[in-house]
Amino acid sequence: MPLTTLVRNRSRLPLLLAAGALLVSGATLNVPDAQAQATGCKATDLFVAPDGSDRSKGTAASPFKTIEGARDHIRDKGLNRPGRMRCDINVNLRAGDYPVSTTIDFDDRDSGADGHRVVYRSYDGAGKARVMGAAPVTGWEEYEDGIYRADVGTDKPFYTLFEDGKRATTARYPNRRSDDEWAPYMTSVLSEPEKEAVRQWLYSSPGDWDASWNLDQASAVVWSGGSWSWFTDTVPIRDWNAAKNQMTLKYWTRYALMNSRGGSRYFLQNSLDFLDQAGEYYMDFKKGQVYYKPRGDIDDVTVLRPTVKTLFNLAGPSPDRRVQNISLDGLSLQYTDFVDWYRYGWISDGDSGEPRKYPEYDRQIELPRNRFGAVTVTNSKDITLSRLRVSDTGFHAVYALFANDGLTVRDSLLENIGGDGIKVEGPYPGEGNTSNGHLLTNNYITHYGELVPGDASGIELQNTGHNTISHSHIKHSARYGVSLEVRPEVAPADNYARDNTFEYLRIDQAGLDSGDMGAFYTYGVSNVEPHTIDNHVRQVVIGDVIPDGSMPDSGTRGVHMDAGGCGFSFEDIEVGRTTDQSYQSYQCNDVKNANWEDGYDATKMEYDKIGVSADFPYPLPEGDTQ
Predict the structure, then answer these.
(1) Within 10 A of 11 (CB to CB), how many other CB atoms are there?
(2) Number of Cβ atoms within 10 Å of the Cβ of 116
(3) pTM: predicted TM-score of the whole model, two decimal places
(4) Residue limits of the GH141-like insertion domain (predicted)?
């Protein structure tokens, strides 16, 4: 079946059932109740409703008002106490909106016990209970040229904005080409030969900047590294001199702003002088005022400011005291915030200041200030996130950090995500294998990396093993679709990225704005011979991987096995158009039936099983019919 005419048969439930229980989607609301009936116990039901009260009893007739109210009731009454919990506890959220002004925390006090779970679920159907980390902006006054201004205060600054469920663009120069693109850019230049290694001074070509601009609260978004297009930094401008074409950034970028005499692509943002298009906003942090040019009539739209960076934080106190046996089912999670500045990782080995066996790993993980998602999971066991609809996040949608075992994310729609879709980051290498056995299946992840296009992945795994990533559709990214990473310096005994399976995946529109990449990417996974084959990739379709024309880096690939990208089997893989090779790797992997090799047999592709299931609980975005 040719890739360009690939159309899948949506009626494939019998095939999926025949393939086993992996894709039981949980589309039936009362999955916990069915399990309870099988064990002969009756679940405890608590109810929450937008018009309820936390002084109520939590019954269907007298519901709580907040999730925290139900959580605290369970704690206070000891309903989940070991030895007392005889069946699951269902916290049923009725349809409606649940605004969140502070993160909802679960710890080991909130765990299920004795083989039972505490389930927070949307009672009236998937997506009907909407947990929202945003509040309306009101009190708009007309400013000029279709721009409106509102007072929002200086006590709680925010770094993204939404109009009627669509992200606004921070006013920028040059204006973006479309809502789906990050280009166009300006390009930094080399002022003096000895300035090539600088990471804080950005130089422009004469005429690129207007001396009348007010950049007092502006920042630069830059693909640092010159010809390398790997990471993006978002850095406030400390000061600038238009006459000298020089700008000083408040923080160092990850890489130098010039590389091999090549400049870095960048744009400037958050100046009132840049606010000239509908859907753009400018935030005056000093005065606590937001300026916005709405897409529609200001009286007919709802403009929302984020109130939290994380909606749910599930965190045990330590790896020895884990939060466990909690489920979030069928909830719609919408709106979270970004940060005031962003860089991926420390700049140099050991910059964290903490003694580590592999100090190089400091450069491979998020800075502590950026370790969050709309759902953040730490020190956990057997947490299940099912049938979620996560949208309009400032940063990652789901972030599992360090010590977590048995995380399940399934049957969920993740869209319009600021950072990664799902990020599972294991421990530092050589410090204990504490992240294993995760199941990420039947998920549709689209338009991610909206605020952090550099290094964005639909699913990113770091130093974690024994995981299954399957039956998912991943779409629209400046960089990766799926990535598995450790570091090339890590010895085999300290490298935990073992026995991972990637299967029945469809990746479309990856590599839209970066280079030297693959839609499927690995780095530092097997660094020493012999390279035992213990990671497996099968039944994967990768669409075209074509970057923006401004991208100066080396080409795009379907599969890129970077340094240490060894010890993998590939079987039944199909790749569309790329600007470089379909597959780039050292001779350390096993490939069978891939369309970049002679003798490829398309009849072995199980197209009807690739991507999400026919009974996926949400309408597919953009009219996609799989």
Answers:
(1) 9
(2) 22
(3) 0.94
(4) 252-295
